[in-house]
Write a structure and sequence with these properties.
227 residues, mainly alpha, Arc Repressor Mutant, subunit A, Tetracycline Repressor, domain 2, transcription regulation, TetR/AcrR family transcriptional regulator, transcription, HTH_TetR, DNA-binding
């Protein structure tokens, strides 16, 4: 069983990397089978179809991101801290989990209405709802201005969704600076009192540290389950 799980993960990881590099249409079973030294039948045995591999990618990615967001919500006390952490996380994932993040973002709408993608869609909706609830809690507490929480949440996700098209880890601007700018932009427009904005947007501040702690904790939990 352990070998089967390991081979499943190897196939999914390799497909994910190729989708990030080439896009869904550029990847096929032969390409992945050749790299891993397995038959195409082995891939079919584990996944059945290419569409199902894409669905598995979405499900694995969003399961991890949800666990991390839930960790942040528990560990942070205020809506402003929680939203700052979520925004930092949007950008940190472009370094900490780059291949999966790029693969997910460039292909998230593909086959969106197919039954095979239903679980991934449910997980994405849950993630969106949690972020929207953070915004609503900030409005209720008086930390945030009164805004349309749904529209503002869509705008945040839209900003993050296209980062894969222009951000490069090897570029001159570090991801920490990008995250800082995003937090400053979003919370700068939401906060009724900007006194703590610098701390919230600081890449070394408490919310950003909790993001990295969440990533480590979820990763360690996954490793413990698979070992």
């Amino acid at each position: 069983m352990a070998g089967g799980v390991g081979r499943y993960n190897d196939i999914l990881d390799t497909f994910t990397r190729y989708i990030a590099e080439l896009g869904y249409d550029g990847v096929n079973f032969s390409l992945v089978a050749k790299e891993l030294g397995v038959s195409k039948g082995t891939i079919v045995h584990h996944f059945g179809t290419k569409d199902r591999i894409l669905a598995a990618l979405h499900e694995a990615y969003m399961t991890k991101r949800l666990a991390e967001l839930e960790y942040m919500i528990v560990e942070l006390d205020t809506p402003s801290e929680r939203l700052a952490a979520a925004l930092h996380a949007f950008m940190i994932y472009h370094v900490e989990d780059r291949a999966a993040t790029v693969a997910f973002q460039r292909e998230v709408v593909r086959l969106a209405h197919e039954e095979s993608m239903a679980e991934g869609a449910r997980l994405r909706a849950r993630y969106f709802t949690l972020v929207q609830q953070i915004v609503e809690a900030g409005i209720e507490s008086g930390e945030f201005r009164k805004v349309d929480s749904r529209i503002d949440s869509f705008l945040m996700f839209g900003s993050a969704q296209w980062a894969w098209t222009w951000f490069r880890p090897e570029g001159s601007v570090p991801i920490e600076a990008v995250g800082q700018a995003l937090v400053d932009l979003v919370l700068g427009s939401l906060l009724t009192n900007r006194e703590n904005l610098a701390e919230l947007s600081d890449p070394e501040g408490h919310p950003a540290r909790i993001v990295r702690e969440a990533i480590r904790a979820v990763s360690e939990a996954e490793e413990a389950v698979s070992s």
